[in-house]
Amino acid sequence: MSTIVKICGLTTADTLEAAVEAGADMVGFVFFPASPRHLDIDFADALGRQVRSRAAKVALTVDADDDLLDAIVEQLRPNWLQFHGSESPERVRSIKRIYGLPVMKAIAVAGPDDLSVLPDYAAVADRILFDARPPKDATRPGGLGAAFDWKLLDGVNLKLPFLVSGGINAGNVAEALRVTRAQGVDVSSGVETSPGEKDPDLIRDFIRAARAA
Ligand SMILES: O=C(O)c1ccccc1NCC(=O)[C@H](O)[C@H](O)COP(=O)(O)O
Question: Any coiled-coil ranges, and where?
Answer without folding.
Answer: none
